[in-house]
Specification:
The chain is an alpha+beta fold and about 180 residues long. The chain is built from five helices and three strands; from the N terminus they run βαββαααα.
Amino acid sequence: MPISADSTMRGAFHLVLSMPTRTDPLSVQRAARGFAKREFSGFQYGMVLHTYETDPDPTPSLHPHIHLTVKAAGLDEIRLNPRKLDLQRWRERFAEAFGEHGIETTTTSRIHRTTHARWKVQHLPHCTTKATVLDRQQQQTHRPRQQQKVLQHYKEVMKALARSDRGDDRQLAADLVRSLG
């Protein structure tokens, strides 16, 4: 199914399936294989495992991760057209694939994660405005409204935990305060 040069259609989709630093890379690979086999059975796909030692990036990630590329045109000639809900479902199914190998995982959407400095802002050297230099603190404090709402909910939970009679609840509140800053 050729795509014309001026088309906005994608020929393939690239997914990165990543796990925390201390996750066994072979478990990541097995879970990714199971996930891809179930989710993309009617599509051609390829994947590669990257670890800190094997990642060709000049600044390799400490997180073992899989690069999964899926051809958009299915074997039945129906095109893959993922939406936001599909992306969340894929995250959940990838976590389920870990469960099949005896590893408990949870999924969180990006908005519920507490680290927001995900990318680095770079400006062209010829720019002369004052806004060309942004420090990390400014980047982290500028958060979309929905993220601010989520953090406000976390603060309310921390306050409730801090008022609890149970010591482990108060300890959890203190841990959350330290991690969310």
